[in-house]
Amino acid sequence: MNERIDSILSAQVVTELGPGLTVGVVKDGELVYKNNNGLMNLEYNIPFNDATTFELASVTKQFTSACIAILEKQGKLSVNDDVRKIVPQLYFSGDTIRIKHLLNHTSGIRNHNVLLDLSGFDYEHQGYTNKTIQQLMFRQKGMNNKPGDKFLYSNTNYVLLALIVERVSGMPIHQFAEKELFEPLGMSNTFYSSDLRSVVKNRAYPYFQVKNEFKQPKSLTLCVGAGGMSSTISDLITWSQVFLDSKHPFSYVADFVTKLDTLNNGEEMQHARGMFVTAYKGYNTLNHSGRDLGLRSQFICIPDLDLGVVVFANSEEINAVDVSYKILDFYIQDLPQNEFNQAKYNHKKEELNQFIGNYQELNSDLRMHLFINNDTLNAQSSYGRNPVQLNSVSDNSFARIDNASVKYTFLSEKKSEADLLVDFGGAVFYFEKIELASDPNPNVSEYSGSYFSEELNIGYEIIVSDQELILNYPNNQGLVLKEGEKDVFGANRRTKYAFIRDDKNKVTSFYVASEGTVKDILFEKVNQ
């Protein structure tokens, strides 16, 4: 088995003196595999080792959730508490946001990463902290959805959870987690960052590639809760026992973190409280990945097999999630045939016609064209190079031929604002069917002008150049806007600009929506 896993690691490192990855596998409570390949530091040609410390990115979220679980067990809060009971500065939309809505990403709170992008934040020369994000969120006057209505992944939920831990416990989250979680578990090399200047022994540095040269990202940001943690393979293997050992002293944390709440419509979710609970080849997996500039991480467990896999890569060229599933496959293939047998459903060609057309992500300009080729439904994303073929799964659902974990479900009930759900292993993206403008507006000058948003505290300038509409704002110059639906524009950046007219048909403002996680940021025209 170890030789087979070694072959996966060898295939991931594209150059002998480049970044790489480190992997750990636990089976039946024993560490059965631990190895690495590539360099954790390119400056000094230092390879990964058994004590390499790496950043977790979004794998952090399950630990932030664990802190909430501990506080609930201590009787200091309840997941059903109104968030504004602890954070009264948050805008009240008329619907109560509960702590559980932050944990399972159904709060409707806008994602701060997208808000920063829309405000022209200069990541290369600026940094932000939890307080920066808190101040930004306290200025927001809108929501993406009613709390509990739908899953929308937002890092801001977990920045707010870190604030809740701080206010309820009376100590910063890094101190609380150290005292209540890491020390009791013996995770001596796991920590939330609290000072960018700290020396971290055996640190793996992240790298990204520009042409044939590796670059090291430099960050001035210190923001924890959604990310901001570091650990080692050994410590994460220790952590996996919380989920794999039902008699573990911290098993209540596992029950809390993996609990599947229900949406307002009664539908059970796949995202629990800091982890996804998704099926893979007949087994339930507990998993969460992480990604940041220059790094990728993955933590996944299958309790029924008493199996856990941890992968970290310090290169964007290495797919940590893909590596983890290839390792899982070795163990699953060596087992007696389980009951996994995905049902096949055959659509007739004329039945496929109901699904074809143009779809657009809600609160985004990302489009997807559905069409039939050789009696097979195909999906072509406006971001994708090639169309993907889809297999029929049921009368209204399909899965990618090359990746069955990606599912497409078409909705016929009009009480839903979406017509198509695309599910990437529990992370759901929502699409509506649209009719593209048959005759795009030739008089683009009526959209030009200066606009301002109070929520973002930023101005946008829209001009006309060579009969094209051009958007300029800080650190974003020369964005060419193209009309899709009438009065709705995009620049193929998962951002949508929907213009509003008054009763005299004059453009007065526009709403910006982006990446599916920010809805209706109002920009009003200031030079009418």
Labels describing this entry:
eight-stranded antiparallel β-barrel, 31% strand, Lipocalin, Beta-lactamase, eight-stranded antiparallel beta barrel, 3 domains, alpha+beta, 528 residues, single chain
What does this structure look like?
With 528 residues, this protein is of the alpha+beta class. It has three domains: 2-333, 3-Layer(aba) Sandwich (Beta-lactamase); 349-434, Lipocalin; 444-525, Lipocalin, CATH 2.40.128. The chain has helices at 2-12, 61-73, 99-103, 112-118, 130-138, 155-169, 173-185, 233-244, 251-257, 320-333, 349-352, and strands at 21-27, 30-37, 39-41, 46-47, 54-55, 191-192, 208-210, 213-215, 229-231, 276-280, 283-292, 295-302, 307-313, 357-361, 367-373, 376-381, 388-394, 397-400, 406-410, 420-424, 427-434, 449-453, 458-465, 468-473, 476-483, 488-490, 495-501, 507-514, 518-525. It has an eight-stranded antiparallel barrel with strand order 14-15-16-17-18-19-20-21. It has an eight-stranded antiparallel beta barrel with strand order 22-23-24-25-26-27-28-29. The chain has a six-stranded antiparallel beta sheet with strand order 2-1-13-12-11-10, sandwiched between helices. A hairpin with a 2-residue loop joins strand 15 (367-373) and strand 16 (376-381). Helix 2 runs parallel beside helix 6. The longest helix is centred in the N-terminal third of the chain and has 15 residues, at 155-169. The model has no long low-confidence stretch (mean pLDDT 93). It comes from Cyclobacterium qasimii. It holds the Pfam family Beta-lactamase. This is Beta-lactamase-related domain-containing protein. Residues 19-319 form the Beta-lactamase-related domain.
